[in-house]
Every structure is written in structure tokens, then in C-alpha cells.
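Purpose: get a first structural picture of the assembly so the mutagenesis plan has something to point at.
Setup: three entries, given in the order below. No constraints added.
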Amino acid sequence: MKYVDEFRDGEVAQGLARAIAAEVWPDRRYNFMEFCGGHTHAISRYGVPDLLPPNVRMIHGPGCPVCVLPIGRIDLAIKLALENGVILCTYADTMRVPASDGLSLMRAKARGGDVRMVYAVTDALKIARDNPGKDVVFFAIGFETTTPPTAVAVRQADAEQLKNFSVLCCHVLTPSAIMNILESPEVRDLGTVPLDGFIGPAHVSTVIGSRPYEFFAEEYRKPVVIAGFEPLDVMQAIRMLVRQVNEGRAMVENEFTRAVTPEGNAKAQNLVSEVFELRRSFEWRGLGEVPYSALKIRERFAEYDAERRFNLEYRPVPDNKACACGAILRGVKKPTDCKIFGTVCTPENPMGSCMVSSEGACAAHYTYGRHKDVEETPT
Amino acid sequence: MSGQVKKGYARPLDIRHGRVDMSHGGGGRAMVQLITDLFAKHLANEYLAQGNDGTCLPQGEGRLVVSTDSHVVSPLFFPGGDIGGLSVHGTVNDVAVMGATPLYLTAGFILEEGFPLADLARIVESMAKAAKDAGVKLVAGDTKVVEQGKGDGVFITTTGVGFLPDGIHLSGNLAQPGDVLLVSGSVGDHGMAIMSKRENLSFDAPILSDSTALNGLTAAMLASGATIRVMRDPTRGGLAATINEIAHQSGVGIHLEEAAIPVKPEVDAACELLGLDPLNIANEGKLIAICAAEDAETLLAAMRTHPQGQQAAIIGKVVEDPHGFVQMKTKFGGRRMVDWLSGEQLPRIC
Amino acid sequence: MCLAIPARVVEIAADDQAIVDLGGVRKNISLALVEDVQVGDYVIVHVGYALTRLDPEEAEKTLTLMAEAGLTEQAAAS
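Result (C-alpha cells, whole complex):
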């Protein structure tokens, strides 16, 4: 696969590993957060930490839209399926996330809810066309990468006057989440885990461009390197971060130049602002209420807004008290620091946001890396 | 013209346009006609011809091995196969990986009212061909019909019976540190062939299911003289599930080499598009084998000379590990675990 | 968090639709979010939509940078 395989080359990886090892200062620790869950997954799946020097630590950030989706939002989707009798269309990622009353979308399906997995929002539009007598709701999750397709779909529905189609909008924004992490008391307090820099998301950045990150670099004096999706991209970005830290710089650099420009995709951005506007506040699982961090559908497209159509009332649901996700999402704790990691809380039985999706910090560690916990434990 | 009605005239089964209806499961003449005109037409043999409630089979040599499998695959017809062939291959393989020679099969059909007879005929023909190619005979069968909406077209349950020669003892708890792990060919073909046909996933990939009978291959492997500890066919859950099962049963760890695991480029690409891992995808015509290290090359050679083992490869080794972890050295050079998923792997957007 | 993959455009159809090829697998996608895409271009595909065109020159530059990193180190070490 062109533009994929070359960026996974093992030999080049060895070269980059040597380069990084040569550039790190031996008595300095480097803590970098990869914001994006896709990067967390890539790092775990390819075993990238094995190629990094021991004083470089990767901290997994909250850039996983399924992980940060509050239970209360899934409850709304389940309600629509079980009580309002809609055809609930969702990306497969949300199917197994446990919600209230021991339910999940998969279990709601088992109870008779018409829940359908779709690969693309266009599939939901088709279902709406094929079932004119039923309400079809698309459960729209995702960061800025996934939002433009939803915008296109809403405009399409409007153009066709597809009256039985609506969207339950749970789209969230990256810069606000990054700000929330940087603003959190634990991170600002230099006594605890300092974050030396960020690996910026790959595909979100193709849409929003590299400019939005300049604010963080300047305001918080943290370097940001936008990295492509493949493991070599991540390693190259780490190398660039190490260099910035050593040189005392805090700039936005772009490793993913083959797909990211400073302005991003203006066409996509315009489509999004035509259909959506900012919510004043939105609850993120594990992070609490985050201001101006999520989108809702504009008045102009109100008839395609499931929240308005079905008079949905959001009810927050707290996480398990023992859950350490909030601290883990901010990089202050590791999965293994959580009391219930691997015992009560496993991928089969996730208790909090970090375990619900395969790219959450805890799930990634459990699925791909828990052999290391055993190796590090002295016998 | 005298208007005479032909004696014993029975309206023939309209296989081209007819559909299954409730009478076909009713135990009466309609059912007998279905059996005679459709099932027996393709599956006839001396055992079915006995025509009794139970079939008498001759004694065999060695220990009796039995296995059963239910087949609910959807869609019923997929690139490279169909539910009929699958139902034969799956059960033949389960018996074969025990080291036994599969000889007989039974088949139970649950048909949905309204199911086209033309499709049923295709499926039964497919079963007959699969059985013939595998050298097994269908010796007993049953048909039931359920109301429309209560079945997915057709469900098939097959039970396979074979005989295991003395001296062969294969089991999932026999893997030992130092042993070598082999796979008979590329992984993920079947599951991705199915995905390509399912609703909602609309791509035209030239991926064919690998559904096939493996008893010829297993016989060749056993004849090679290699000391084989266990053979298993990784169906649902893929290679990852099967390897984890064995590691768990034997109380050992297993280390894999990603670069050595054969995956067809189209399967790789399809998995990329959907965010799936080929190691978690179902196979229906592959097996893994664990053998003593000194016999690995011999076994590999024996597999590669057989048509169903041409892409066979050594993919890992068994190590001491009380935790039973399955670890893999990635092509990239790092190490990660290959975990046992709790359910079917779903496509992801994240 | 956003699984996206680069694929080659092999056919462009009406209504902003296109067919892309990734390693022999073909998929229908939408071009509604991009402009001026030609057959032969590579695009990044996410949930059935092309998000942006991939710049082949930049891709080459990045690969060269990465490969050089290893060479510099080997030279320095020897």
C-alpha cells in the first residue's frame, strides 16, 4: 500500500531510534503527550516504546471521541432506539460502550432496538430514504475529522427534504481539550508530571490546519509537532520534539507535510460552520465540563437535530469512584496506577473512558502492553 | 384425447421458482418429496439409501472422534464459497485437526418459510461437491421449517465422525517451551470475504473465502513423521484467539514474528480500510500446528508440498511464561501483545 | 482517533463520488470535502469521505528526512 508501507519500514525505524537516542540528553526526562487516540493505537500496535530511549515517555491523551463520550450521551442514543423506536445508526466504535442500567447499544439491539452499525453517514441517509415511515437518527461522534462528513449529510438531507433523518450531535473539538489539559491544576503545577510537548493529531489537522496549535505553543510554551498516522511519522515527530526541547523552542512544527497545511481544508471548515455552532459547554467523560468544546446543530437545520426533534434531556452520569481516568487522561497517572486496572476494569468490562475504546490509554496498555508490567515487577 | 390422468402423477418440485413452505417440514409427502427431489438427488450414497431413522455404520479402526458445528453465516453465498460448502469443510476440519480421518457427516437443516428452492439446491449441490472432494459421506439428515422471519434463510448443523489411529495424540495442552508454531497459509481471507459482501461495507475487493477441507493436508502432516503436539483451525476470533487458547491450555507463552505471518495484500488493505487486524479475522481453510523444534523444517516441507499448504510458514515459538501471554515482534521492530478479544472485532472509525 | 488511509483515485463519477483503490481493494467514496481531485491523485479517506489530497513531493521529502536520520547516526557512530 503506497504511502502506508513506506512509513512503517522497520529498518528506517532502527535508524530513527538511533537518531533519537543520540539526541536526548542522558540526564533529562522527556514527557510527550500524543493527543490523538489513533496515535495511541499506532504506538501500541507497532511497539514504538521499545524503540525509544528509556527517558522518553509517551503519555496518552484524551483524543479518543469514544473514550470521552459521556455515558449520558449514549443513554440518549439507547433511549431513542428503545423508547422512541427510531432506527439508530452508529459507527461501530460505540456499540459496546457500557451505559446506564447495564445497557449498551449492542445490548439495546438485543432487546429489540433497531440499532445499525454504519461505516459512513451516507449509509444512514440511505437507510432514511429506504424507510420513509420510520425516524432514522445518526449518532454523530468524533473530532474535527469526522464532523465535516456529518455536515455534508445534514445539507444533503436538507436538499432532499429527507424529513425522517436527524442527527444526535456529539462532535467535539481538539484545541479545547488540549487547553483543558494544559489548564488542569496537576499539569500546571510544576511539581507533578510536566508535559514537555504534544504530538498533534494527524487527520484532525488535515481539516483544521496547523495554525490553531500556535496558540498553545505561544501561550503555554510547549512545542507541538503534528505527526502523520504511521509509526515512522510518530518517531520522526518525537525526534523533532526532543530537538525543540533541547533547544528551548516552543513552536508548531509539521511532520505531516504531505497532508497538513497551515490553513487546513477551508472547504470542509466552511461546511462545518454552515451546519454547526459551538455549545457553551459540554461534558467530557473523565474531564468534566469543558467550555466551548463541542458543537450543536444550528437553528437553520433545526429539523435535523435529534435533540430538538425528540425533546432530549441530557442527564450526566458519574463514573465509578475508583476510576482514575480523569488523572490518566491528563497524563498525571498511568493505567497501572489505577486501583481497578486489569482487575475490575478490563476491556470486557470497562469502568471508565480510558478502557472503553481500543485506543484509550488503559485499553491500549491492557491489550498491547501489559506483558511489560509483569516484566517490570521484581520476582 | 381421452382425458386420462397419468397414474401416480405427482407435481414435480419447482426448484427454479418454488419456495420452502411449512409443509416441507411437516413430515408428510411434501417433506419426502423435498428430500427425494432435492437432498437425495445430490447427496445419495449407500448409507442414506438405508432409509431408516438411524443409519448403521461399519466399525472403524482406532478411537472414534466426533465434532459438531452450526453454520449461520450471512450472506449465504459469498466470494469463494457458500454455507453449504462451509458446513462440510468446518466439521471435516474439526475432526481432521484431531489427527483423525473424517469419514461421515450428518446434516440438520433449519429452513425459513419462503426460502427459494433454487438457492437450497445450490447449497445442497455445494455440500455434495465438498463432501465428495473431502472423501466423506453424508449419512443422516434432518429438515425443519420455521415461519418466515424466524430464520435467516437457512441454518445448517453438521456433525462429523472419524477415526483416530492409535499412537496419535494431539491436544491443546501439550505445547512445550521450545516448540515451533506453523500456519498453513494466509490469514483473514474468509472473514474479509464475508465483510466485503455485507450490507454497509460496499467495496469490490477480489478477496475469496479460503473455505476448504483440510483432511488431505493433515494426513500429509501426520505422515511426515514430525512430532506434532496440536493442530487447530482458527475460525471465529482468528489466529489470535486460537493461539491464546492453546497458550492458556498448555500454560505457556508464545512469541510470534509478524513478518512471518502470511497475509494477502488485499486482505491487509481491506483491514486497513476498516480498522481491523487480520489476526482477529475468521479463517475457514487454515490450520495452525505446534511441533517439536527439531521437526519444524520437515513439517514445513510436508505442508508446502500439499496444495492447501503451499503458503505454509513458521510464525513463532513456544516459551516459558506462567502468564500465558502471546507476544509478537512487529514488522516495525517493537513488541506488543496479541490479545484475546472478548467479542468479534468491529470496524472502527477511530 | 481518526482512522484514515491514503488511497488512489481510480474513477471519478457524478455527484462528487469517486472510486479509490487501496492495495487492490476498491471503495466508493465522496469528494464533497475536496476540490480539483484528478484520477491518479492520492487522497486521505475517512468514513467514506476524502479529507484532503496527499502531496507526493512532500511525502518523498519526509521519507528522505527519515532515512537520513539513520544514516547520519551510523556515520557519526563509525
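The first helix of chain A runs from residue 10 to 23.
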